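Subgroup meeting minutes
Present: P.N., E.W., G.H.
Scribe: E.W.

1. P.N. recapped why we're keeping a running log of single-chain structure predictions: easier to compare across weeks, and new members can see raw inputs and outputs side by side.
2. G.H. added today's entry (114 aa).
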Amino acid sequence: QVEVVESGGGLVQPGGSLRLSCVVSGTTIDSRFVGWYRQTPGKQREFVASISNGGVVEYAGFVKERFIVSKDNAKSTIHLQMNSLKPEDTAVYFCYVVNGRWYWGQGTQVTVSS
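Output recorded in log:
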């Protein structure tokens, strides 16, 4: 059974940084499509960043070199380093892994506020 668990969210001031982590169990991630989405109340979940099964990294346009997605295959962990955070980055961040279907975590809340 595949399980996805995010952590690392919290409250940060504008301009600050956070590092989100996502631990995947029940499957390896080295040849899987993985990444992050985010969601705010009343809005659809939106794409943030991904790493393809071939290692190609993609980012949403709003990231603009502020975020870095990475993964540690040995630890089955996916990271999202978020820098220069803005209030509009406030959202619940969800990690996913694709293994025949999409598996999602429960999300971790990120709040950017002074």
